[in-house]
Amino acid sequence: YLKSEYTEPDSLKKIIATNPVLKNAEGLEEQQSQWASASSNLQTIRIVLWVFLGINLLVSFLQITTATGLVIYSQRMRIRTLSLIGATAGFIGRPFIRRAILEGFVGALLALALLGGLLYGAEQAFGYRILSLCPSVPLLGVIIAIPLVGVCVSFVSSWRATRRYIHMEEGKIHLI
Question: Of 33, 44, 51, 75, which has the most beta carbons under 10 Å away?
Fold first, then answer.
């Protein structure tokens, strides 16, 4: 197993400098170029994965916003009636936002369960012990970030859709 602190291209130079036996070893120059190539390839892969993550987050936000908007759209007359009798925007939007946050949290827990099942299945089927290779701090960060993102995206989309129908003019709500 490689330790991450020794996978940088300049690490091989540091190891050679500290160990006099390796100074006369053959083929180390070739390995240094291989390390540099591997590091460059890994950096490219990181950038591509971050781009895919951003696109995936954008698509999921748009899908959640559309689904939430449709749910709130079906209740637009009830929202309008409540606003006509003097209900505040917070009172009208609170049940929609609460429900969206709960659904976002449950969805995040389901995503974590599926991810855990995938890791367990990979270990059982192929013998890959992926969790033992992952550092605990980033793994804990993922476990915290998935529910946080699910709740935040659900909250923002529900708040925007509810606010749209609460503040819509009376004549326009019937035309939609």
Answer: 75
